[in-house]
Write a structure and sequence with these properties.
Blueprint lengths: L1 H16 L3 H12 L6 H11 L6 H14 L4 H15 L5 H12 L6 H14 L3 H11 L7 H16 L1
Helix pairs in contact: 1-2, 2-3, 3-4, 4-5, 5-6, 6-7, 7-8, 7-9, 8-9
Length: 163
């Protein structure tokens, strides 16, 4: 199965090199729905990176399919959850974004500080500074975090205060 999927993936790359986007998209989607954690994920991100699908709803559905239909190591799955939330932050409402990122907020994962910064930035973009402050402040309660996270949260809080 892996060999067949790898051949299909190479075929999709050849279609892209030859600017045959329609066949590339069809082949990549077929691989995504084959539910192989490696090739399905590679195919999905190739679709994204090449902007082969522009429908936000379809992309969200493909993200969901990957997360529900493949077995990933914990942190890899959390990375996909974060990437999905990051993508969706551009077009979903507050409750949908929080629901999407909730698994990261409610667990001890290395993606939690990223999620908190994302939500803080989301609320700053909406000029909802109290909500933004709530998420930035939570970063300071995470122990043994890289200093960059603390500095970024602190600088965002200073910007909010001065705004």
């Amino acid at each position: 199965k892996k060999i067949l999927l790898s051949n299909e993936y190479v075929k999709a790359r050849i279609y892209l090199a030859n600017e045959d986007k329609s066949n590339a998209v069809n082949t990549l989607k077929k691989i995504i729905f084959a539910n192989d954690s490696v090739y399905s994920t590679l195919s999905f991100f190739l679709l994204l990176d090449q902007n082969l699908i522009t429908d936000y709803d379809e992309i969200s559905l493909l993200f969901e399919h990957l997360l529900e239909s493949n077995k990933y190591e914990k942190e890899l799955k959390n990375l996909l959850i974060y990437k999905k939330a990051l993508f969706e932050s551009n077009f979903v409402n507050e409750s949908e974004l929080i629901e999407s990122i909730k698994p990261l907020l409610n667990s001890d994962t290395l993606w939690k500080p990223h999620a908190l910064l994302l939500l803080g930035d989301y609320f700053v973009s909406k000029k909802e500074y109290l909500k933004a402050k709530e998420f930035y402040t939570q970063i300071f309660s995470i122990e043994n975090l890289q200093q960059g996270f603390y500095k970024q949260a602190k600088s965002q809080l200073i910007l909010i205060t001065n705004d």
